[in-house]
Amino acid sequence: MMALCDLSSKRPELVEPYRDSLEAIFLSIASQERPATLANQISAIQASGRMGFVSLLPVVRELAKDPSSNPSIQLSSVAALGYFADSADKPFLLELAQSSQRVRFAAAAALKNYSVTTD
């Protein structure tokens, strides 16, 4: 999945015809509708942010905000919010970045994308 992200940024014309299909597959993996390993779920979350698959944003938000999520999934989801850089998530990320929670460093890193893409 991450190789597809790299290919998408270097040769978008090769990935663009499959974009909708990839988005649907990534959504089914990230939301666990399709059985997948933890590593594949994390990759789907990260790739969705990097490729701008906005249909995954609600799933990523839910996983980021759920303290009962697997810690690796929650961390990956918080980081992915930075790729989306949606202004609705900025207050949540600011709060996390100033907390003592395990995801504070991922939130701080995600916020760096906001200065580049928004405001």
Question: Features of this protein?
Answer:
119 residues; mainly alpha; 8 helices; 71% helix; 0% strand; globular
Structure in words:
The radius of gyration is 14 Å and the shape is globular. With 119 residues, it is mostly helical. It has eight helices and no strands. The protein is 71% helix and 0% strand. 33% of the residues are buried.
Can you lay out the helices and strands and say which pair or pack?
Blueprint: H1 2-10, H2 12-15, H3 19-30, H4 38-51, H5 57-65, H6 71-84, H7 90-97, H8 104-117
Helix pairs in contact: 1-4, 3-4, 4-6, 5-6, 6-8, 7-8
Order of helices and strands: HHHHHHHH
Rg: 14 Å
Please give the alpha-carbon distance between the first and last residues: 30 Å
- Helix/sheet category: mainly alpha
The count of DSSP E runs of length 2 or more, i.e. the number of strands, is: 0
**Shape verdict:** globular
Mean pLDDT: 90
Q: Briefly, what is this?
A:
This protein has 119 residues and is mainly α.
